[in-house]
Predict the structure.
Amino acid sequence: MSREPIVGIDLGTTNSLVAICDARGPRTISDRSGSPLVPSAVTYTQGSAVVGADARSGAPAHPRHTILSVKRLMGRSLPEVSADLPFLSYAVEPGPRGTCRVRIPGDAGNADLVLSPEEVSASILRHLKQLAESHLGTEVRKAVITVPAYFDDAQRQATRTAARLAGLEAVRLVPEPTAAALAYGLGLSAGDRTPRHVAVYDLGGGTFDISILRLTPAEGDDPFFFQVLAVGGDTRLGGDDADHLIADLFRREIQDRTGAPPAPDAARGLVTLAEQVKVRLSEHDTAPVRIDLGPSGVYERTLAREEFESLIAPLVDRTIDRCRQALAAAAAELRGKSLDAVVLVGGSTRIPLVRRRVAECFNLEPYTALDPDQVVALGASVQAAVLSGDRSGTLLLDVIPLSLGVETVGGAVAKVIMRNSPVPARATEMFSTSVDNQTAFRLAVFQGEREMASDCRKLGEFHLRGLPPMPAGIPQLELTFLVDANGVLGVSALERRSGRRASMQVIPNHGLTPEEVDRIERESVTHAREDMTRHRIVDLIANSNLDLKWIGERYDRFSHELSPADRETLAACMARLRELVARASADWKSVPPDDLHQAKEALDRASVRLQEISIAASLRGGPLRPG
Ligand code: AMP
């Protein structure tokens, strides 16, 4: 990076992150543990400050020395934070000029430490600055830092001061919802000046925020103007409440079954267990629960997603009510225009019920392509890139630079949207199964010009589960790829017979430089002939296997009805194709595709009589399933 780097920082209540945006697009920086989430926790013991995961995990042992949630104190007076005090484990006292201070008891011969919230935040910012510096290999002096949309002047000023104490110039403070929208490229535009109206729904562990924004692309230093049209929320509503509802359910049931509340040991772990159950239910339909109650036995049950959803429905309802209020408050500004996008922020937006209810409320499929824990930091880095004049990673596309497709049986990629298609682009393809009674599909989405998945770039995968068992080839899987004007790819799968759906979102453009796109294109030309042959072989193997299975089953049942000559020809054709398939599966180069194709055609021709016999049998109500 030639220009002086500007990083993006999400200085959060619970976790903080640092991100950069270059020609590969925005990305967060992870520490040695591999996680980009730095817990916003600082432990002051024996004259030194420990920041992050170690401070958070040591908090129960050092409650009065570990400062958590310091963001709630930034720029506030003691009376203003009185509602938060019961939730803080450390001492807070009044400071000069209507500010507050935290007091950390002295230890190991050190006196008490009295610190401003800015100084504690500076410890966290310094940690993030060092993380970025060791990643980039250069000094970092400037940052774009995000703040809640409702932060007032004093709170913003306190954030700037914290940055200065950490040796960082806060070149911009950006509202968190605006950053989340920017991470998706909303509000940035190559030439189009139409304002975009965006709702940002942010549901974390302990807080909920809804913001309705207007982003107007412009020119010059600031590539857009943003206006906050409405905000709403609840500072004490979040995923933690869901954990407590589940834990309460378990507690009640344990009491009903054993006649006594759970022993303190079991009770303590209940909330942690409840959170694990909740997280599992975002991915699975059920979660098993097993608690050893000691002498009272074992508490065992399965929590189904439906049960969890009815448990948390009132919580989700409360957030939706706030969304409706915010929409009503913004109505005059929106003047009947509908929203262009809904962006999800915060770990709790991974809950499927939350996604469904938000989609219903706003009548829009929300953006989920970016990690909801990282989206604010990513957006801050996009703003940083814009300010530093390096917009290569934030440019919006007018065409899709690399083809997009899905992996098929045998490892080939079926392209669904072709390279150079104009954005927005949409395409639908039909697929089916290759084995009987398949109740789930794995859908792996790839980008690139080569024919085999192993030579393309994997963008992600998802599963369509819960299909009723059907013979191979009967399910009708409709796969839709949609790249919208912001370059977000949505892939959705619908099995038409059962109505089951699943979907995922990604931003294909992130993580690749324009040079890499060029290289991928060149390689596809070099390998074109070989790739085509391999793709053809792989497809021929898959289709031959289906034929061999179908014809083989019928041969076993009805071959006695064939003439001896027909039977012999058919058996020879099956043996020949089986042999070629086995050889091609072991080494695709060992069989010319034309040979395989001819052997398959020969089998198809030789099986005509068998097919007639089998159809006649099924019309007579024979035992074979339709197929
Ligand atoms: P945040 O404050 O944004 O870090 O969000 C933290 C909250 O998200 C906690 O309540 C977590 O339990 C919750 N969370 C994280 N991952 C998931 C998930 N996969 N499903 C449901 N909730 C989650």
Notes: The CA atoms of residues 361 and 565 lie 68 Å apart. The first strand starts at residue 6 and ends at 11. The longest helix spans residues 528-558. Residues 532-626 form a domain with the Substrate Binding Domain Of Dnak; Chain:A; Domain 2 fold (CATH 1.20.1270).
